[in-house]
Amino acid sequence: MRRITMRAEVLEALSKLPHELSQALKPMMTAPGFDASLSPEEFQHLMAVSQLSDAELRIQLLSIAAAYSIASISNFYVGAIARGTSGRLYFGANMEFESTSMSQTVHAEQSAISHAWLKGEEGISDITVNYSPCGHCRQFMNELSTAQSLVVQLPERTPKALQEYLPESFGPTDLGITDLLLSDKTHDLQLDSEDALLTAACQAADKSHAPYSKNFAGVALRAKDGRIFSGMYAENAAFNPSLPPLQVAMIHMNMADYPLSEITEAALVEQKSAPVSLLADTQTTLETFSPDLQLAYAAI
Ligand SMILES: [Zn+2]
User: Fold this and answer.
1) Which residues contact 176 (CB under 8 A, 6 or more apart)?
2) Which pLDDT score is estimated for 4?
3) Quick check: 1 pLDDT over 70?
4) What SS3 string covers 279-294?
5) What is the pLDDT of residues 207-233, one digit of tens each?
6) N or C: more exposed end of the chain, with fewer CB within 10 A?
7) pLDDT band at 6 (very low <50, low <70, confident <90, very high)
8) Same-domain pairing of 47 and 146
9) CA 202 vs CA 30, 118, 180, 195, 272: distances in Å
10) How many domains does the chain have?
């Protein structure tokens, strides 16, 4: 369920779209179930009323995606729209976090892809971005189950395959990994706990992508109104572009139009036998929102 109010930046972006498009999109975006994604039918309807092509419409909609951006350090607002293999389109935006390290930043492509993953997609067919994907994102996308067929669309550019943006790429198969990002999998994780937040974090960990460290990890965040947002860990063959589960949970919250200042509690579940730990980074980043924020932790 979406909250009643939508942030001012999104409403402003909506009002600036061409009139027919704005009028057709507004009832979709203000409907109670809107979750910053569009069904294939809604997208087809928008194409028909706006008389735009598939790519032209996605490019127009980037301003809506970018309106979810939290970029108080760079003031550089990046929006991305990832289309899952089901045909549904998911908005995403970059997120920056003051008072912590730059490595905690979320890129718009990571946001849109994680958003699709959180909603159950098992692959991404194309991604539309308002700026050329940085090297970090090209590498992040090369981890996807659909990395060999993924198409990247930029404004005023012809669509190109990810592999054209990342020639002679290094990826999971170079490390002998065949289990790819977004491919459906579970790890049979179990947690004996009555705590709803820890249970949600464990369920997220069960769906995580951690073939390198085997640190199957998940985070769950509780908002002021009680709603829980979870996030799965997404490792990468090049290690550094890995996206921590806290970031995926924050993407979940941001795309549901919840301010991160409304995080009241958090939980992290990870593997006690893994050679890496996400505990220190998760704690440090959460403390920037509130020094008193309680992090429940289970190493299983
Ligand atoms: Zn990037």
Assistant:
1) none
2) 59
3) no
4) HHHHHHHHHCCCCCCE
5) 999 999 999 999 999 999 999 999 999
6) N
7) confident
8) yes
9) 32, 14, 20, 11, 13
10) 2
Domain assignment present for 241:
yes
pLDDT at res. 283: 96
Protein residues placing their CB within 5 Å of the ion ligand 1? 107, 134, 136-137
Q: How far is the CA of 134 from the centre of ligand 1 (A)?
A: 4
Element at 226 (helix H, strand E) = none
CATH number, domain of 290, equals 3.40.140.10
Q: Where are the beta strands (DSSP E) in the chain?
A: 37-38, 79-84, 89-93, 124-129, 151-153, 160-161, 218-223, 228-232, 263-270, 294-299
CA of 106 to the centre of ligand 1 (A): 8
**pLDDT single digits (tens) 87-142:** 999 999 999 999 999 999 999 999 999 999 999 999 999 999 999 999 999 999 99
Q: Where are the beta strands (DSSP E) in 101-148?
A: 124-129
- Domain contains 69: yes
Please check whether residue 27 lies inside any domain of the structure. Answer: no
224 CA distance to ligand 1 middle (Å): 30
Look at residue 180 and tell me if it is in a domain. no
Q: In the chain, count H helices and then E strands.
A: 10, 10
HSE (side-chain half, CA atoms, 13 Å) at 71: 16
Ligand 1 centre and the CA of 238: distance in Å?
Answer: 14
Q: What percent of the chain has pLDDT over 70?
A: 99
Q: Ligand 1 centroid vs 108 CA: distance in angstroms?
A: 7
Q: How do residues 71-88 score in pLDDT, each as one tens digit? A: 999 999 999 999 999 999
Q: How far is the CA of 237 from the centre of ligand 1 (A)?
A: 16
What range does the domain containing 96 cover?
8-12+35-175
Q: Catalytic site residues?
A: 109
